[in-house]
Design brief:
seven-stranded mixed sheet; eight-stranded mixed sheet; 22% strand
């Protein structure tokens, strides 16, 4: 008969504990609960553990597990006794377990909240961060089961395991007794434990991408015997790019006596290769991919680029095929780019990887490029490589990733890699969807503090092949949140390239002041107008006349750059009749020479389609390190601090007749490329984005703080929320409860008393005191003063009764109107404050002016919660109608500090209590002194899962 300890039916198998994780070296493992079916796996695992590791685990020689041990370690109730295993290829590589204990240290059950925890990691996998990952997951499981504290006993010599515990960042106590180190630590996440977890996440995910982009050997699987076809093309691209590692051609249909294909060793299977293979490019039909994945996994391949289509983009069957592909590859610890991918490129001289369908290797450079769409990837590579899209001058690529359906490796992973990649100064991303907006925003904020990130995000629905989390936020709101994080958000790939070229070539401007000079008055005025439209501060254009010589340009540009009132210069140029390429080269050299005298200020050129000038401008040497100084003498912010990889003059400048004839002088090696644009609006838009990004960088140095308010009753609010949630899963609470909850956070709501009859209205007014307002709160009239459902400044009973009669005559009986009486608030500007918890993006605070005009224009600003004091200040000022708050056209300025405090209090409420899933304050009247909240609604629900606060996991779709 089973004892209670044998039973596993206290809880069903917790499948939500299963997770894929990236380890420290970039490989992957699967974490899952241990069950009774794992007895053989456990025994096999234990046999492969060294005697020393067994001794550290059991404090004595323990060569073999007994049958009783195996039973104990595989039978869990998933509450008081839990075991997790990390697996690769279906086999255990590490285990962790906890046993709930009481105050006496003996086995216990709920409500005891302490547990003993112990690990065992196979020696071959020690040093890969397996134990750290398992600790995160077992801690999350324990918190879910009501355990608040772990205890662990470790031998002093077991320094690796002691380090796992001490480095985790939890609040700890340490003691030494009877030759054993005893560690006790609380499982509540701390700022340090979250920081440690995210740092480990960054290193692991960056290394997993680095393994894909810097392979020592590549096998192309699906290489055709005849020229042509995808596999043969990719093999040729790799070979022609000069890949520095080993190449292999694989096709199961190859004759057994075939030794080479295009000079590359040929094999019928990856398993036949007698050397390690780091990366496999899979170019076989979808139905053959599973066999290929198995072969690659058994051979120890580290990653796959799957070019095959026929997955989630083809419908439900393909989506399931895609899920199985990811599960299959992760079983072996492999990561996948794709399926339906265009490929990956790394231009580094020691790699030279072109594992893509791009027939030409891009020039080496400092731009990292990510595109989910293969077609967009081709377009971006073409514009950067061939000087397409009207933007001239060469700018190279460091690495390129086209993720296709991004079933595994996503933009978040690549962003982790580029964050600390010394070869990348600027990141350009085309995103058709964002799988995890909350994480992307977090990673983006950290990245842009070091280097610019320019993003185009598709406004339509996600492509069929992309699995994304549901979001209730409009596209414009997501874009606003990205901008808040410092992302340079543009709308088209033309703008993406325009901004990228400027940021890769020029220093960041110290401010918005722009000098415009050139030999065309009309082009200068057009540029001036565009600067004003983009919010820049241009000086009147300096017209050098059409007779200006290169020396005139040099003199004018030098003077402009030396002027402390100038932050950037836009040079406008039109052709010089009859001079040709020689004059173009002279002008380009004059501009470069002048620009070198002020390395801290950006210079742009707007030119009428002039091949010669554009080519000459781009014929400069490599981009040099530029550590410019602002006018005030402070260190200038730089998007790029390192020169690009060496380029030959031939690589930079195509041998056209114009450039060959001109043969411009070889520039100084420290000269910088000056970007040239064929239209003023494109140049100015790129400059405006650089100005805003530089401003964000300066402000990010002091992000502000979340204020503490002494009158906030966090405990009382939690108790009230708990009591209200006992009524149901999700509910919009009543007016009295809303006032009580908001009052706990210092937000006072004006009382609104129901007035179902004229007599009730008079009684309510007598209670509140005159003057009062009479409002219809029916859904179709609520917050619609423009429809006439509100009567204000009613000074006495006679006016109130008359207003009541007018409303009922116009809109119907009181039962439909739902009238209320409210004491008049001081006159001011009507605004709206909202907060919502979105399942994908997290908690968002929004602000705008009340009224149809703002709603129609979409004039609402957004910030992620928690909001700092600086966030609140910028939130109020970032809407287009903000001048109404600050005395527009002689009106009285209102109390914006009080408004900012209200925003901060609402942010604190939502951040402290995730059960508050929606708050609306409408209207909020901001008066000359103080604010009045005249209407409020609050919705409660069980808190949504915060995956960004849990253990590290790879997404599963």
């Amino acid at each position: 008969m089973q004892t209670p300890a044998d039973r596993q039916d206290r809880h069903e198998y917790p499948s939500h504990w299963e997770a894929d994780v990236v380890l420290r070296d970039g490989g992957t493992a699967r974490v899952r609960p241990i069950t009774v079916d794992d007895a053989d796996r456990l025994v096999s695992f234990y046999e492969q553990v060294s005697a020393e590791s067994k001794y550290y685990r059991f404090f004595a020689p323990y060569p073999k597990l007994s049958a009783k041990d195996v039973h104990r370690f595989t039978h869990h109730d998933f509450v008081d006794r839990v075991g997790l295993a990390a697996t690769i290829g279906g086999e255990f590589i590490a285990t962790v377990r906890y046993d709930r204990i009481g105050a006496d240290g003996m086995a216990a059950s709920v409500p005891a909240d302490e547990a003993e925890v112990a690990f065992l990691v196979q020696d071959a996998h020690q040093g890969r961060g397996v134990a750290s990952a398992l600790l995160e997951h077992i801690a999350a499981v324990a918190r879910e089961r009501g355990i608040r504290r772990f205890a662990a006993e470790v031998l002093p010599a077991n320094s690796k395991m002691i380090k796992v515990f001490t480095d985790a960042g939890y609040t700890q106590q340490r003691s030494f007794e009877d030759g054993v180190v005893r560690l006790e630590f609380d499982l509540e996440p701390t700022d340090r434990s979250v920081a440690v977890q995210r740092a480990r996440e960054q290193r692991a995910e960056a290394r997993s991408v680095r393994r894909l982009l810097t392979p020592g050997s590549v096998a192309v699987i699906g290489v055709g015997r005849a020229p042509g076809g995808v596999g043969r093309s990719v093999l040729g691209n790799l070979r022609d790019a000069g890949f520095t590692g080993r190449l292999y051609a694989v096709n199961k249909a190859f004759p057994e006596d075939l030794k080479e294909v295009d000079g590359v060793p040929a094999h019928r299977s990856v398993r036949d290769i007698d050397a390690p293979v780091d990366l496999a490019v899979v170019a076989v039909p979808a139905e053959h991919v599973p066999d290929v994945v198995t072969d690659c996994g058994e051979h120890g391949v580290q990653g796959l680029v799957v070019l095959a289509a026929g997955y989630a983009e083809s419908g439900p069957d393909g989506r399931e095929r895609q899920r199985e592909l990811v599960r299959h590859a992760r079983t072996y610890g492999m990561r996948i780019i794709g399926p339906n991918a265009f490929g990956i490129i790394n231009t580094a001289a020691d790699v030279r990887l072109n594992a893509s369908l791009a027939p030409e290797m891009p020039r080496p450079g400092r731009i990292g490029l990510f595109a989910q769409s293969g077609a967009i990837g081709i377009a971006l590579l073409s514009r950067l490589h061939r000087r397409g899209g009207g933007v001239t001058g060469t700018t190279g690529v460091s690495t390129f990733v086209s993720s296709g359906n991004r079933a595994d490796v996503s933009g978040n992973d690549v962003l982790q890699y580029w964050y600390d990649d010394s070869e990348t100064d600027v990141v350009l991303m085309y995103l058709e969807s964002i799988g995890n907006p909350r994480k992307f925003t977090r990673l983006a904020r950290r990245t842009v503090a070091a280097k610019p990130l320019v993003v185009v995000q598709s406004a339509g629905s996600a492509p069929q092949g992309h699995a994304v989390r549901a979001t209730r936020l409009p596209h414009a709101t997501v874009s606003a949140l990205l901008r808040q994080a410092g992302v340079i958000r543009v709308d088209t790939i033309t703008e993406l390239v325009d901004a990228g070229l400027l940021l890769a070539r020029q220093p960041l401007p110290a401010g918005p002041r722009v000098t415009i000079l050139g030999n065309s008055e009309s082009l200068g005025l057009l540029t001036y107008d565009r600067c004003l439209a983009e919010g820049l501060r241009p000086a009147p254009p300096l017209d050098l006349t059409t007779m200006a010589t290169p020396a005139d340009f040099h003199r004018a540009l030098s003077q402009a750059l030396a002027d402390e009132s100038c932050d950037a210069v836009v040079v406008t140029a039109i052709p010089t009749i009859g001079e040709g390429a020689v004059a173009d080269a002279e002008l380009a050299q004059a501009l470069r020479s002048a620009a070198e005298g002020a390395p801290g200020k950006p210079v742009l050129v707007v030119h009428v389609e002039l091949g010669g000038l554009a080519e000459a401008l781009s014929a400069a040497g490599r981009t040099a390190p530029q550590t410019g100084v602002t006018a005030a003498g402070a260190q200038q912010l730089r998007p790029a601090e390192r020169p690009p990889a060496e380029e030959t003059e031939a690589a930079r400048t195509p041998p056209t007749a114009v450039t060959e004839a001109a043969k411009p002088p070889t520039p100084h090696p420290c000269s910088r490329l000056i970007p040239a644009y064929p239209a003023a609006e494109r140049a100015v838009r790129a400059l405006a984005e650089a100005v805003k990004y530089a401003q964000w960088r300066r402000e990010a140095a002091d992000p502000g703080k979340v204020p503490e308010y002494d009158d906030i009753d966090e405990k009382g609010a939690a108790e009230l929320i708990g009591a209200l949630l006992e009524r149901g899963e999700g509910l919009t609470i009543g007016d009295e409860e809303t006032c009580a909850l908001l009052g706990r956070y210092g937000v006072a709501v004006h009382r609104a008393l129901p007035a179902p009859t004229p007599e009730a209205a008079v009684a309510a007014a007598r209670d509140l005191g005159y003057p009062v307002a009479l409002k219809a709160t029916a859904p179709h009239l609520r917050h619609r003063a423009d429809l006439g459902g509100v009567r204000l400044d009613l000074a006495d009973e006679e006016q109130l009764r008359r207003a009541y009669a007018e409303l009922t005559e116009l809109f119907g009986p009181p039962g439909e109107l739902r009238p209320v009486v409210q004491r008049m608030a001081p006159r001011g500007v009507d605004t709206v404050v909202r907060a919502v918890i979105d399942p994908a993006a997290g908690a968002v605070l929004s602000f705008g002016l009340a009224g149809a005009a703002s709603q129609l224009l979409g004039d609402t600003a957004h910030r992620l919660v928690p909001v700092t004091d600086r966030d609140a200040t910028s939130l109020v000022r970032s809407i287009r109608t903000a001048p109404l708050l600050f005395g527009w056209r002689g009106s009285t300025p209102v109390d914006t500090p009080a408004l900012e405090e209200l925003l901060l209090r609402v942010s604190r409420l939502v951040d402290d209590h995730p059960e508050v899933v929606a708050v609306t304050l409408e209207p909020v009247v901001v008066a000359r002194q103080g604010v009045s909240v005249l209407g409020a609604t609050v919705r409660l629900a069980p808190p949504p899962a915060r995956d960004d606060m849990g253990p590290r996991t790879l997404p599963t779709y």
